[in-house]
Amino acid sequence: MKLIDGITLGRASRPAMLLAALLILIGLAFVYSASYRSMGDGEGYYTSSPQKQVVWALVGICVFLVVISIDYKRLIEWAYVFYGLGLLMLILTMAIGREVNYSRRWIDLGFFKWQTSELMKIAAILALARLLARWERRAELTGLIAPLLLAFVPVIIIARQPDLGTAMMFLPIVGGMVFVAGARGKHLLMLALAAVLAMPCLWFVMKPYQKERVLSFIQQDSDDPERQMDDLYHLTQSKAAIGSGGLLGKGWGKGTQNRLNFLPMRNTDFIFAVICEEWGFAGASAVLVLFFLFFWSCTRMAEKTRDPAGRLLVTGVTILFATQMLVNTAMSAGQFPTVGLPLPFMSYGGSSLLMCFVGLGLMVNVSMRPTILWGRDEDEGLERE
After folding, report:
1. Is there a contact between 301 and 321 (Cβ–Cβ < 8 Å)?
2. How far is the C-alpha of 178 from the C-alpha of 86, rounded, in Å?
3. Which of 34, 39, 329, 367 shows its CA 20 to 30 Å from the CA of 137?
4. 29-84 pLDDT, tens per residue?
């Protein structure tokens, strides 16, 4: 499939694009279902969330086309500029951002509330790809200092918003990217061990409500009525929705936990619980299969490029999507503490959806511009641009 300037859409990217489109369409369907608000006596109404999500999907398609029209190598050349702008936006959010649910994560633009940390994820991946593509100290333990610093600066700022869930997303990203870049296994094991040993220190910097979420996760069977109506409420209602779905679900738009307003944040953080309630185990499993096929197709894109920066870029975005999917679904099922992480391509939210389109665009961009190999030299590893 030929695109602008004679550039061809790589075969490796087509399954990923198709699977992403399917996930977005399913997400739109369940954003619509989750937008229903019951008023009692069988009456209710739908919010404007579905229409807004459709608008952001159309905007996202335009953003996707812009991203794939620019050679990703040029984007990587400007990676540190994007990284600096991302940090500036995070600092600006701390100063003038809108506070919602104890956190200051959004800049209110009037027509759009922009969550600046979503942009920072992509900017950090671009910066890490540029740094690690020319990483000469991969065999040294001290060589890990630069990529770790690059990742931990936004982690510290985002954690102070506070948004610990988003801040933690940077850790698997930097870990996976330095592994692909050639870091020694023993050095990564040492860092992993240090991270595990440092985890208890987080307790002393967490906000009271964050501590309560962790305690509620640990004590899910607590009979404390105050905890049941506060921190455990989200988790209890989510598990009730998942369990009540059974094998085939109650039918799209017919979930009682959803339609009777029992399930909080059902079109954003807990949209997977709505899918489980209305499509059951079979439907939820089908959605998970789509996600895993999408991630597999992303790894294929990474394998097919011989450019180190391109491979690292695809790796970082894939890890970002995969980690968010795993945390979000595990959180809905009570296997992870409640954190504000959306389900990629499916949860309601303009910032999240646009980030997904940008990430997908970057991966397709790499697939469109592979390193060209000389005939049989492909097997011998010889390459040219």
Report:
1. no
2. 21
3. 367
4. 999 999 999 887 778 889 999 999 999 999 999 999 999 999 999 999 999 999 99
- For 247, other C-beta atoms within 10 Å of its C-beta total 8
Contact partners, residue 69, CB within 8 Å, separation at least 6: 4
Pairing verdict, β 103-108 and 98-100: antiparallel
Tell whether the torsion through CA atoms of 271, 330, 237 and 280 is positive or negative: positive
Query: Which range has the worst mean pLDDT, 179-183, 190-194, 265-269?
Result: 190-194
Tens of pLDDT, residues 148-161: 999 999 999 998 88
Helix (H, G, I), strand (E, B) or coil at 106: strand
What gap in Å lies between CA 81 and CA 335, rounded to an integer?
A: 38
C-alpha distances (whole Å) from 233 to each of 230, 276, 323, 335 are: 5, 18, 24, 15
Q: Which pTM does this prediction carry?
A: 0.90
Residue 267 is predicted with a pLDDT of 92
Q: CA nearest 105: which of 96, 325, 85, 320? A: 96
Among 116, 114, 131, CA closest to 79: 131
At 371, phi and psi to the nearest 5?
A: -70, 130
Name the nearest CA neighbour of 162 among 77, 104, 111.
104
* Cα–Cα distances in angstroms (integers) from residue 1 to residues 12, 14, 165, 227, in the given order: 12, 10, 39, 56
CB 269 within 8 A of CB 29: no
How far apart are alpha carbons 237 and 363 in whole angstroms? 37
Looking at the chain, list the stretches that DSSP marks H as alpha helix, in order from N- to C-terminal side. Answer: 13-34, 49-69, 72-77, 79-96, 116-133, 145-159, 164-168, 170-181, 185-198, 208-218, 225-228, 231-244, 256-259, 271-304, 308-332, 350-368, 377-380
